Amino acid sequence: MIATATLLLFSGACVALAAISGPDMLLITSRSLSQGRAAGFASLAGIQLGTYCHTLAAALGLSQLFVAIPLAYDVVRIAGACYLLYLAWKTFASTRHSTVKTTKQPTSTHKAFQQELLTNLLNPKMALFVLALFPQFITPQSGSVIVQMLLLATILNAIGLIINGGLILVISNMRNRFKAGSFPARWPNYLLSRVFTGLACKLLFDSRK
Prior knowledge:
The chain is mainly α. It contains eight helices and two strands; from the N terminus they run ααααβαααβα. About 9% of the residues have low confidence.
């Protein structure tokens, strides 16, 4: 199974990632502002189920490639590092404020869940993100790659539930007097850029040992 130190490192990266005001957080916030707590948690559930779907798809493909074609590990590793460096550059370059917009028309919690699940499943960057981030914390000789990948996805979702769930509670309680505005995102974006860069370097220089 994955070493404790590796899980702690992955958890730290997940905290930094979950704290950033990215597309998922903006969707959850706007849903909570306009439709309340239930819709916010329904949206979060749809996003997290989508994360499991992406993880399982990646695990099934990667597990076969790692066994049959050892070179595939290096291909994914280098491609993943390049993508992480691209994310680092985009994050560092993004210094403008993010704006949260409210939705006027009410939507059922079931529809909110479906919408966010579909949005997540149709996001190709999420699939690339899983392929880029997860493999560097996987040790194929330590057990089932699928189990390890799903464990990482569970940690990512658990941290996301704590951070985004807290946000949903705060926003839904303030929604009657809180108006949509701009959220400062400069300093967490700089932090995330450093995280991406560090992970890219680790991915580039680590071997498959």
